Amino acid sequence: MVFMDNFIKRNKKIALELFYKMSKIRFTEEKIAEKYSEEKMRCPTHLYTGQEAIAAAVCTLLKRSDFVISTHRSHGHYLAKGGDLNKMIAEIYGKVTGCSKGKGGSMHLIDRRVNFMGSTAIVAGTIPVAVGLGLSIKLHKTNQVSCVFFGDGAVEEGVFYESINFAILKKLPVLFICENNRYSVYSPLKVRQPEGRNIYEMVKAMGCATDFGDGNDALGVYEKVKPAIESIRKGNGPFFFEFATYRWREHCGPNYDNDIGYRSEKEFDFWKKKDPLRLLEEKLLRSSVVKRKDIETIDENISQEVEAAFEFAEKSPFPEKDDVFKHLYNECAQ
Ligand SMILES: Cc1ncc(C[n+]2csc(CCOP(=O)(O)OP(=O)(O)O)c2C)c(N)n1
Ligand SMILES: [Mg+2]
Hints:
This protein has one domain (2-84, 119-315): Rossmann fold (3-Layer(aba) Sandwich). It is built from 12 helices and 8 strands. It has helices at 2-10, 12-35, 52-61, 75-80, 85-92, 127-140, 158-169, 199-205, 218-233, 265-273, 276-287, 292-315; strands spanning 67-70, 116-119, 146-151, 174-180, 183-184, 187-188, 209-214, 239-244. The longest helix is centred in the N-terminal third of the chain and has 24 residues, at 12-35. Residues 151-153, 181, 183-184 line the site of magnesium ion.
């Protein structure tokens, strides 16, 4: 506790940046959830609410030039890396001003301006892409890091093992971030992976540097990942993290789904009490370097940014019918 208070005193700017990023993700997704039933957003959306600390902490440590790749649950990673909010909301509305020109939707975000290299819904399909980017960094000697976010479900795909093996073998500058939210759709971990086998320990046994942490503690994630990124930049090869976390809303869509019975209210309440955003806010206020007024100003600014993004999306035009086959394969959307 004292350690974290000191962290905030020494690193006020970083602590506020983490708070800003987490609030921005939270506000944005709450607005998506609020407006989803209007049926103007016609793509599936997988909300990241509850997991914000991981994206915020990891992406704050990365440079703009570093690569990030993500999954179906990508809003948090895109925004934390500095992806354009207007273009993200326009994308979800299917508008031509969207980051994938309105043809990708929530699960296909990209912003090459900040090296957010893309997200796709094929579980684990992005992991070899991140490793390929890692190989290109090594060949070009550009000293970047390639970071890939994925869920606990991705660990059940063959390509996960091949990719990690190759990254270790070639000592590639890849940061693997496994967000273990305990579920793959409605299936809990215990029906998918052997009980008592920790993901990070299994990957360690493959020969990779690994660690595990509380994904609801933004400052804790920041402190753990910082030396790992330094080690990757020194050429020591990949690093793998498993962070424990929890998604609050249904797997896909804007609602809560505790009533359907695949997880208990008790479990949900346990995690909701560990709300990463409120935990950070409490720490900031307790440190006394940050005042309630600072928090309110941040919240107000974000609220305006989010309102403006939805207005931008609603006012933007849809893509032209004639362009339906454009920008699909070999032409980048940016
Ligand atoms: C290869 C593949 N198999 C199955 C699916 C269907 N699917 C979409 S998301 C998902 C759950 C993935 O769980 P996890 O990786 O833990 O991510 P989370 O949704 O929990 O963030 C599944 C099975 C898919 N998109 N791709
Ligand atoms: Mg999961």
